[in-house]
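Here is one chain, start to finish.
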Amino acid sequence: MRTTIVGTKLPPTVQRQETTPEIDFKTDEVIIPVKLCNLPPLNAIASQILILTADPDVDMSQLSRVIGADPALAADILFLANSSLFGFPSRMHSLRHAIALLGLDRIKALAMTVAMRGFLGKPSPLIHQCWQHSVACALVCDELSAIFDISSDRAYTAGIMHDIGRLGLLKTYPKEMTPVLAGQHEDTQAILHAEREALHIDHALAGSWLVSNWAFPEDFSEVCKRHHDVPSAADSEILQLVKVACRIADIIGYPAVRCRQQPCYTDATSPLQPRLGRNGVPPEEDLRADVTARLAALQC
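Its structure:
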């Protein structure tokens, strides 16, 4: 029988008493560290954009008004829209212009990127390391999305969200997470074990709980929870894509944590073979160059 992770809120009395000892809260499946329970969600405007753009007939003016309600978010989206990431010959000075030129898919992806950067807060070497992995995974998802007939924005968003649990744990428990992220481990299972030893929870379950608690789409919760599982044809298409993209991001030089055991590019992309046509997957060097160039415009 399938069970779900149930969100836990701190009682008001605990929130008000700063000297109260820290308590972990148990759900049906896992103990959620208290600071993670108190972590604020992603930008509320970005969440509205996710809901709005799920409708293919969304009104452009409505979308522009929603984004414009957060001037900082709007400014960052315009900045990225005018960056080398897209290379338009003339500058875009309004959201409507940017939305018209870039389209819903790109605007949605940019909004999620900006929201994630805001979520990270003040950069540090380890935050930057994890951020690069998340964005590299998102860019690989974008590149390979057509293989699964998944829209590029949905693929990109799932990729950038897949490690939200790791980022959340690093933000709330930097002391405990630093040795895990700064170390070198045998493989991904050893990383998950080290996280559980430090905090009674790994980043996969933490991410699944966060995404569910924030009422994001259920498939994003599954992606967070299972992206380190062995690839399987029985998985949903979005999960299959993120599993492959996560491994490719490591291989092309953007791991969140260093591992001694690393699959080769051919092995990592082998789950895609039943879906491939004549063209196959992009060569490793080409994909590395493309991700590196696009990542440069999205650095936090």
